[in-house]
Amino acid sequence: MCYLSVIVSPPLCRSYWRIKGDVSEAIACLRHAIHFAPSEMRPYGLLALANVLHRSHQSEDAATLLEEAAVTSVAGSAAVHFSLGNVYATLLRFEELVAHRYTFLE
Questions:
Q1: Domain ranges, residue 13
Q2: Which residues contact 74 (CB under 8 A, 6 or more apart)?
Q3: How far is Cα of residue 86 from the mean position of the Cα atoms in its chain?
Q4: Among 6-10, 32-36, 45-49, 78-82, which is the least confidently predicted range?
Q5: Integer CA distances (angstroms), 76 to 37, 49, 62, in order
Q6: With contact defined as beta carbons under 8 Å apart, do 31 and 49 qualify?
Q7: Secondary structure of residue 64 in the 3-state scheme
Q8: Which end of the chain, N or C, is surrounded by fewer C-beta atoms within 10 Å?
Q9: What pTM value is reported for the model?
Q10: Whether residues 47 and 66 fall in one domain
């Protein structure tokens, strides 16, 4: 468990662990934040966790989280669709990439 997330904000905790180079602690902090986040803030945590996973070469898991964030996001956050497009490009899923890039541009 990320004890720093109890004292400081989870995004700050995640940044601390990423700077220290401990990706597993960053992931734990974000999972903790997502678990306790109100439903309207959950897509932001999913986006942050997906970005950490994508940078850690776990792009399939990142795509799953971003797909959930795209569905649950109230406003259809452009950042979620942009990140999802980047993950799809890495996974060579070009049809889905184009669909999310158009959603991002709207």
A1: 1-36
A2: 40, 43
A3: 12
A4: 6-10
A5: 18, 17, 17
A6: yes
A7: helix
A8: C
A9: 0.79
A10: yes
89 by Cβ neighbours in 10 Å (0-12 / 13-18 / 19+) ranks as: middle
Residues in the chain: 106
Output DSSP code: residue 38. -
pLDDT on residue 25: 81
Query: Could you read off the pLDDT of 27-57 as tens digits, one per residue?
Result: 888 888 888 888 888 888 888 899 889 989 9
- On whether both 22 and 7 belong to a single domain, the answer is yes
Is the model's pLDDT at 14 over the cut of 50? yes
Instruction: Provide the domain count of the chain.
Output: 2
**DSSP letter at 93?**
-
Distance in angstroms (rounded) separating the CA atoms of residues 41 and 72: 10
For residues 97 and 62, state if they share a domain: yes
- From the list 50, 30, 40, 48, the residue with the least C-alpha distance to 75 is 40
Residue corresponding to tokens 């569905």: 71
